[in-house]
């Protein structure tokens, strides 16, 4: 009974969050920055913030996360951190030799009001940025938004590197949103199968799921290169996967370099993947290849085979808006009932979209943005569910209420697999479905009376 104090009665709360379903903005900015090859993320604030952001990413990816910090002490906290950042830029380029430093702010430097663009420009004027190297930045005040906002802000910061030569390259930019390195690999594989030459950014595949080589590399092989980011301004178009994570960057690229963009849902589940494949197919001007149709058919087959175990099972979901929208649509398409849905990220639009997706369900659906795990737990106490899906933090509710639990989302601190096995696209849909079915069938095996304990499905 880890959360034994959560009461069933729900009372109105305006100023208090308990176990928010989100984490802080710079974590998202740091994760996005790691998707650029040769990039060192830099946290403009105190060492404590940077240590927390690095450790959260390390615990999720089981990889060491390198990042620098402006190391604010009392002086910088009062008078501003310009001197610290200028010194840091000089030191980092001298000692670690990255291609790019990606600076994000913290609550502290935002409250002081440090102007990062002005400091970056000053560093360039003082020749602290070597020729051919770059400093990009974004503002990530963590008292607004969430880690999703920070991710989006850093990806938008990347688009400032894009240049338009006036000659289209024929490539397509794909902004994948906050998905796992394995998902990024899968998006690249699927795009290649359809026959579309894409630039994926950010791209953490090969950075946070690389092999053990026995040799330390400050900057792993993976990641989108600076050259590719610059050329993104000449692309034929941009597909932005997820309104919250990717749309701002795509629109900025459109404004800056006249690269038209289309915002799609993240390709989790059947219908969202269909829309992604259709967008790729349309851009390439080709028919969907047989191999892709085959992968889709396998997912449809598994759904049909196991539908009776999924039918009208109630699910509680929590996590980030882009993921939740696609997952809710997937669960509804499986005839499951996502009845409680919470995100810590702000967005009235999120609630409206979820209401629309779940409109035809034969039950009430609770949905709330800017919310917390405490409310989710209360909803579950009032209307129990068959399954909980979300990041590691849901295990406390799952244990207290004795409900099957599928880990999916960020962060997953106590399991592995998310780095290596995708959950996007048709292949990823198979894995998602396997995880959901295993959780439900394990419970069935545990609870069934002996006469119904069955080997055959
Ligand atoms: S002070 Fe702000 S930026 Fe730093 S760890 Fe806390 S919420 Fe995140």
Features:
17 helices, Rossmann fold, 457 residues, 3 domains, binds iron/sulfur cluster, four-stranded parallel beta sheet, five-stranded parallel beta sheet, alpha/beta, globular
CATH topology of the largest domain: Rossmann fold
Q: Residue share in helices?
A: 40-55%
State the strand order across the main sheet. 11-10-9-12-13
Q: How would you classify the helix and strand content by structural class?
A: alpha/beta
What's the average pLDDT? 96
Outline: globular
**Approximately what portion of the residues adopt beta-strand conformation?**
5-15%
Number of helices: 17
Distance between the termini: 34 Å
Order of helices and strands: HEHEHHEHHEHEHEHEHEHHEHEHEHEHEH
Domains (count)? 3
Q: Can you identify the CATH superfamily of the largest domain?
A: Nitrogenase molybdenum iron protein domain
Give the bound compounds: iron/sulfur cluster
What is the strand and helix layout of this fold?
Layout: H1 25-33, E1 39-44, H2 47-61, E2 68-69, H3 74-79, H4 82-95, E3 100-105, H5 107-112, H6 116-125, E4 134-138, H7 147-158, E5 172-175, H8 181-194, E6 198-200, H9 226-231, E7 237-241, H10 247-257, E8 261-264, H11 270-284, H12 290-310, E9 314-319, H13 321-333, E10 337-343, H14 348-357, E11 366-368, H15 373-382, E12 387-390, H16 395-401, E13 405-407, H17 425-447
Bound molecules: iron/sulfur cluster.
Your description of this structure?
The strands form three sheets. This protein has a five-stranded parallel sheet, with helices on both faces. Strands 2-1-3-4 form a four-stranded parallel sheet, sandwiched between helices. Strands 6-5-7-8 form a four-stranded parallel sheet, sandwiched between helices. The chain starts with 24 loop residues before the first helix and ends in a 10-residue tail after the last helix. α2 links the parallel β1 and β2 (68-69). The mean pLDDT is 96. With 457 residues, the chain is of the alpha/beta class. Helices cover 44% and strands 13% of the residues. The chain is globular and about 80 Å long. The site of iron/sulfur cluster (SF4) has 7 residues, from α2.
């Amino acid at each position: 009974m880890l959360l034994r104090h959560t009461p069933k009665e729900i009372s109105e709360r305006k100023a208090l969050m308990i176990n928010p379903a989100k984490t802080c903005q710079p974590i998202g900015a740091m994760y996005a920055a790691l998707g650029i090859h040769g990039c060192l993320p830099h946290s403009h604030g105190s060492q404590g913030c940077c240590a927390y952001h690095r450790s959260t990413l390390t615990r999720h990816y089981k990889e060491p996360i390198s990042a620098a910090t402006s190391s604010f002490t009392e002086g910088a906290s009062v008078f501003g951190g310009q001197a610290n950042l200028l010194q840091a830029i000089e030191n980092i380029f001298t000692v670690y030799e990255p291609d790019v430093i990606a600076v994000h702010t913290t609550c502290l430097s935002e409250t002081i009001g440090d102007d990062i663009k002005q400091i970056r420009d000053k560093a360039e004027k003082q020749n602290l940025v070597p020729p051919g190297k770059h400093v990009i930045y974004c503002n990530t005040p963590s008292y607004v938004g969430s880690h999703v906002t920070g991710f989006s802000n850093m990806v938008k910061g990347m688009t400032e590197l894009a240049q338009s030569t006036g000659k289209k390259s024929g490539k397509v930019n794909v902004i994948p949103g906050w998905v796992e390195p394995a998902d990024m690999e899968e998006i690249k594989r699927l795009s290649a199968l359809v026959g579309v030459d894409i630039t994926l950014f950010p791209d953490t595949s090969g950075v946070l799921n690389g092999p053990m080589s026995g040799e330390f590399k400050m900057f792993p092989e993976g990641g989108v290169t600076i050259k590719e980011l610059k050329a993104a301004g000449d692309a034929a178009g941009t597909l932005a996967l997820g309104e919250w994570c990717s749309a701002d960057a795509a629109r900025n690229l459109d404004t800056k370099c006249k690269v038209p963009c289309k915002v799609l849902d993240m390709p989790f589940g059947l219908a969202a993947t269909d829309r992604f494949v259709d967008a790729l197919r349309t851009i390439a001007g080709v028919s969907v290849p047989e191999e892709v149709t085959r992968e889709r058919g396998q997912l449809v087959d598994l759904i049909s085979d196991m539908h009776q175990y999924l039918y009208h099972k109630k699910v509680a979901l929590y996590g980030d808006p882009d993921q939740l929208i696609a997952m809710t649509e997937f669960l509804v398409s499986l005839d499951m009932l996502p009845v409680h849905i919470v995100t810590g990220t702000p967005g009235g639009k999120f609630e409206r979209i979820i209401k629309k997706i779940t409109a035809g369900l034969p039950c009430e659906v609770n949905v709330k943005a800017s919310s917390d795990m405490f409310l989710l737990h209360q909803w579950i106490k009032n209307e129990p569910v068959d399954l909980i899906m979300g990041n590691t933090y849901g295990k406390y509710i799952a244990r207290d209420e004795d409900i099957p639990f599928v880990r999916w989302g960020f962060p997953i601190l106590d399991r592995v697999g998310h780095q290596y096995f995708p959950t996007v696209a048709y292949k990823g849909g198979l894995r998602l479905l396997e995880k959901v079915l295993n959780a439900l069938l394990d419970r069935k095996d545990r609870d069934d009376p002996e006469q119904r304990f069955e080997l055959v499905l």
